[in-house]
Amino acid sequence: MALVDRYLQAVKFWLPRNQKDDIIAELSEDLRSQIEEKETELGHPLTDAEIEPILKSCGSPMAVAGRFLPQQSLIGPALFPIYRVIIRSLILYFLLPWLLLWMGIAIFSPDYRADHPGMALFATLEPWWLACTWSLFINTLIFALLDRSQSYSQRINDWNPRALPPVRDPNRVSRGSTIFELTIVVATLAVWVQLDVFHRVFHFFGLTVTLSYRWPEFFWGLVALSLAGIVVSGLNLAKARWTRLSASLRLALDCGSSGLSYWLFRANLLQSLSGNDIPSTEAARFVSFLNQWMARSAIWVLVVGAIIVFFDIRRLRRVDPGV
Amino acid sequence: MSPSTSSDTRNDDRFENLRQELRRGSLPLAVLAALRTEHYGYTLRKTLASHGMAIDEGTLYPLLRRLETQGLLVSQWREEDKRNKRFYRLSPDGKLILKQLSIEWKSIHASLEDIF
What we know:
A: 3 domains, 13 helices, 5% strand, B: alpha+beta
């Protein structure tokens, strides 16, 4: 019977304090009745090996005790869907991009690795860990408190079907946003033409800025992408919804823009800077600093580009193939 | 494992889950009905099992406690065969609820028969 006592002791540990003895007495009586019946059937006292299946059929101590406890949840079923959406968004749009960005920098930037050798590299991830812990903890705490707030539960039940948002069409393109996009592209092109940015040398405020000989390549590439962007906006304006053609063009454009921007950041864009009041050594140091900073930041451009392309691909997959 | 065996196992699992769910819902009614006669836990389990409603200890005792807390059962510790046992029987409220639930059960049964 030592095995039965050990089992009952294990169950007792998880039971509510004021019911422990009562529940254990009842459970004990049931188990002893089962054992007695089996002993009568076999004609001898049961061994531990024969008692074992009886206890196993009763269930694990924690599971048995759990059934005597009231059903509890930190966040109930009414609020859980909202909690899930918030936690999912937090992970997908904040914590995961941050981690990917950190991994990108750690993998592709030798300078970053050199600045943080060995375990110091992982120590730079500390703010991310803190953000994870605190954001998850605070969200869970807020939802647990809301769940216990009577007024909030009441508000959830007091809903009006007419107040629900209209059915969303993910392929619809708002004409307002298309016109805004078109205006921005056309205005940027106009300003650039006005500023005469076709050349590599600029003079303003007593400064002479000379850009890399590769500047025109970037510039004309950008003009080509802007013109293609105007075509996509025109298509969207005409149809007011994403089609296979416009979504594919947008994907190609965003791939091109990301690649071009990455290339620009790594192209040592600024060749020289001069001015009457600036010593040439200082100017050279500034040029070098700016080019190095841009080269280091190129990875960020690539990451942002990858995120945009990810959404473009999702949009393309969503578009009805027949459209 | 062949595809048909895997599919059979999945069907068995699904059937078992739904069967358990169906039986779980009718257990309180079965327990209340069986407790028109006084029983202690073990004999109640035996009675239910003899009528094809087998129930394990981990399910029965919490259910008995819940029904007692709701005032549908009354219990008493008493010595029998030199051992202390807790005997349960229906309370007056329990008798009333059992009557109502029986009517509801018959109505559900009739509705299902009608649908089948």
